[in-house]
From TrEMBL:
Biological classification of the source: Bacteria, Pseudomonadati, Pseudomonadota, Gammaproteobacteria, Vibrionales
Domain Prokaryotic-type class I peptide chain release factors: 21-37
SUPFAM superfamilies reported for this sequence: Release factor (SSF75620)
Family affiliation: Belongs to the prokaryotic/mitochondrial release factor family.
E.C. designation(s): 3.1.1.29
Organism: Vibrio tetraodonis subsp. pristinus
Hydrolase among keywords: yes
Protein name: Aminoacyl-tRNA hydrolase
Length: 137
């Protein structure tokens, strides 16, 4: 059972975990040990509330297929158990981020004092540069 929030949990049967061989260099066990984990989660047929499902399907994430299947590949660690925990934690994190409401951005403008300070410094710089010109008699 995977806990998403105080009220939302996922049952073990909803998540498909498959052990696969990791990519890259790995020494003597690279071709013998299946330490990476391939996690698949069917969003549409899950027991998640509708708001979670809609949020997940609205994400523009390449790991979510058009059929609503989220695929996570965990191969960061050397042991299968650590990769399994990593994949489950990443799944929970993606689900939590789907329902997080983004703070609305309010456009701001500089204060009057900041604007005056900027103009004063521009004027001082202009004066400095104008004093460098050739003097005419």
């Amino acid at each position: 059972m995977l806990k998403i929030s105080n009220t939302v949990t996922l049952q073990a049967w909803e998540i498909t975990l498959t052990a696969i061989r990791s990519q890259g260099a790995g020494g003597q066990n690279v071709n013998k040990v299946s330490s990476a984990i391939h996690l698949q989660f069917d969003i549409i047929h899950s027991s998640l509330p509708d708001i979670y499902k809609q949020g997940l399907m609205a994400l523009s994430d390449s790991r979510i297929s058009k059929q609503g299947i989220l695929t996570i590949k965990a191969q960061q660690f050397r042991t299968q158990e650590q990769n399994k925990e990593d994949a489950l934690e990443r799944l929970a994190q993606i689900i939590r981020s789907a329902v997080q409401v983004q703070k609305k951005r309010r456009p701001t403008k500089p204060s009057r004092a900041a604007n005056e300070k900027r103009l004063k410094s521009k004027n001082a710089r202009s004066q400095t540069k104008s004093l460098r010109t050739r003097v005419s008699h």
